[in-house]
Specification:
- There is one protein chain.
- Helices cover 36% and strands 24% of the residues.
- Helix 2 runs parallel beside helix 4.
- It is of the alpha/beta class.
- The strands form 2 sheets. It has a 6-stranded mixed β-sheet with strand order 7-8-9-4-10-11, with helices on both faces. Strands 1, 2, 3, 5 and 6 form a 5-stranded antiparallel β-sheet that branches.
- It has a domain at 4-81 and 169-248: P-loop containing nucleotide triphosphate hydrolases (Rossmann fold, 3-Layer(aba) Sandwich).
- The two termini are 29 Å apart.
- The structure holds adenosine-5'-triphosphate and magnesium ion (MG).
């Protein structure tokens, strides 16, 4: 459990008159796996959209490793070390597993070396080496040459994680990586995230409380745009205001 790697101060996002993320001040500690839980519509994905620079906050601040991220161009955020997976799988279906990951790794190498087009082949080689390592780490080496579209749902979600990892992030944001998975796939994904979480700081949006209890060092509970409670999985489970949210606040799969 380290220092805060990411900190939000009064982070707020309004869509028209509706406040989807409401005055959120939250710390993610370096080295932790932090789970973000809460009913449907609580603002979890919108929070990730803000942290990853996909959308701009209406007000408030985001500080990542000491740097202000709010107001930066979205394309600059990955270079600062934040990568994310999406609630819906976001891979190129016609490309192979390997090509998807290599592309992500290549983007990183290219980003790090602006104007280094003369060393294109070395960059490609470095990207291929990185891609192979990432496939190995995510258990996808056996399907490296298969088209992403032909993979099982579970493997497509793992590929999504692999693509995010290929950017070599300091912080990985995972939006419901176990959604729609069989119990076996969920177990594999939990193991994968635990493994990744040993090396990278992770924030994971997750509805399955068994997965949360297995993985999370800390849990933040969102409700109607606000962070209602933060604590260990046990603390949060015993929190009466949290129990009330889940009894009254909406369906949780
Ligand atoms: N671009 C948008 N324009 C208008 N409203 C939006 C937009 N994006 C999200 N919202 C609204 O903001 C609220 C929070 O949505 P969000 O997707 O962040 O919830 P969530 O906690 O991720 O829910 P789920 O568990 O269903 O994924 C919802 O009421 C949603 O309809
Ligand atoms: Mg969501």
């Amino acid at each position: 459990m380290g220092e805060a790697i990411l900190e939000t101060v009064g982070l707020t996002k309004q869509f028209g008159g509706f406040t989807a993320v409401d005055d959120v001040s939250l710390e993610l500690r370096g080295g932790d796996v932090t789970a973000i839980i809460g009913p449907n519509g609580a603002g979890k994905t919108t929070l990730f959209d803000l942290l990853s620079g996909r959308i701009d906050p209406t007000s408030g601040e985001i500080r990542f490793e000491g740097t202000r991220l709010d107001g930066l161009d979205p394309s600059a955020v990955p270079r600062h070390g934040i990568a994310r997976s999406f609630q819906l799988t976001n891979v190129f279906p016609g490309l192979s597993t390997f090509e998807n990951v290599r592309l992500a790794a290549q983007r990183r190498h290219t980003d790090l070396r602006p104007g280094a087009f003369l060393s294109h082949y070395r960059t490609l080689e470095a990207a291929e080496t990185d891609a192979r390592a990432v496939l190995d780490r995510t258990g996808l080496s056996a399907v490296a040459s298969e088209a992403a579209a032909s993979l099982s749902h579970g493997r497509q979600r793992h590929l999504d994680i692999a693509v995010a990892l290929a950017a070599d992030p300091d912080l990985l944001l995972l939006d419901e990586p176990t959604a729609g998975m069989s119990p076996e796939e969920t177990k594999e994904t939990t193991d994968l995230v635990a493994d990744v979480g040993d090396e990278v700081t992770v924030a994971i949006i997750e509805h399955d409380m068994d997965v949360v209890a297995d993985l999370a060092d800390r849990v933040a509970v969102m409700h109607r745009g606000r962070v209602q409670a933060v604590g260990t999985p046990d603390e949060v489970r015993d929190d009466e205001s949290v129990q009330e949210i889940y009894l009254t606040g909406g369906a949780v799969a």
